[in-house]
Here is the input.
Amino acid sequence: MRFLRVCAVIAVLFAAAPISMAAMQPQPPKEFVPADTIPQDEQIPAINLVAAAYGFVWFAVLGYVFSIARRLKTVETELAALESRKR
Amino acid sequence: MGGFARVAWHVMRKDLTVEVRSREILFTTLFFAVSVVLVFSFALVREGRAPDDVAAGILWVAISFAGTLAMGRTFERERYNDTLRALILAPADRPAIYAGKLLGLLLLMALVEIVLVPLVALLFDAPILKYPGLLATLLAAGTLGFSAVGTLFAAMLVRVRSRDTLLPVLLYPITIPVMIAGVRGTAALFQATPDEPMARFWIGLLVFWDAVFVTLALWTFEPVMTE
Amino acid sequence: MRKLTIPFLAVSAVMLVAAPWIINAAPYESTMGLVQKVFYFHFPSAILFLLASMICGINSVRVLFFRNLRADGWALAAAELGLLFGAITLVTGPLWARKAWGVWWVWDPRLTSSLMLWMIFGAYLLLRKYGGPGSERLGAGMALFGMLNVPFIYYSVNVWRTLHPMTSVVPTLPTDMGRPLWFCFTAFTLLFLALLNLRAGLEHQRVRVEALYLAEDEA
Here is the structure.
């Protein structure tokens, strides 16, 4: 019963946001106009950007996996030590 | 319902009584807020002229910094005297205690803003008398949203070691929608020809955020504060 | 759930290595050319970023209102993954934007909300790290507020017209582009699930170790 109440309140909170937003539509922001033509020397070659993006993804994911692996090893050695001491 | 209101009222009165005697938090917060306004003015004003819309931004930055300080100090006082534990142990509705602390903080912030708004208007030639009702509503809604989250977090952090730095770290990202709405709404009202519909839109959005934040805070205060 | 971690990781690693070839085979987008290929990594990361915040939020509710301490491991894992995939989204996005829009960053609602959500994950992890004992419940309380950002981010594109592509762009992609997109999506999702599992398991182990230390001290 309590679980249902919690879910109901959360559902209302989630639903209220888009409903009230849709109800008040403001004028669109007029500030930003994208630059269509940038002088040639200001442009960065696309391949650099794409390579940097993919490179970052690999670096971040591998870095995180290594970090988990390292922490997992520490915890498992500690656990083994504690278990053997308990016995 | 009557019990809730009574407890909240008593908690607020307790805070007020302590504060009226020393006025420590009020004066220090007020002075700090004024210093923030001045520092930002020196940083942003060039050749005697301020960039557009900067008055609204400075006002809300000052409110947010001063508010964070005030919340921290109010709960620090509780921690120092260990009265927060007594409050939690009391056979009172826990959310009512939160409501009482929130009301006390709101009153303090109202007093600070009564000084701050005319000051900003003076320094930046902002037309605060054109739509005073809207401006007051906007300030109230924004301050409520900010204070609602802040009171909860400040209470949560009361026994944490690095609470002084953790409070702003936690508070500012979550209250950015309130800040954005407050600044843009105030900027709309401070324009040469105030943009009333825009301000009303932002007030509506703020009221929605306030309802969400206060409800959620009332709800989570008890589970978060009790072990 | 634990047994699937290794296979998931292996499959996703193979898929991610194969991804550049598959992405290369996809047709060029007419207006943006080569740089649009960042989309195949950017879009799945963004979705997983939002998914991580929902997982963190839901588990925070379980910790706070249902006193489920095991859920806390999942919440922490989801927050770290949110930080990871959020970082990927917030770095690949501007790299794409520099070519497509001419600037690294604009302050439109979607970008701003995403940056904000990322900061909230950062704040949550700082609280968990430096909050001392009992920070599970404090973090859970804070994560609830953070979770409220999720619908705001999603609907901000539909309510306020911005520079960001409308969310309905995916169904209308030509099928040649759809295939590499779903491929990358699957690869990233498998990776996400595997990492979530691993990290939550690590957290549960760590809690056990702490409990054992405590029991040892008391004995």
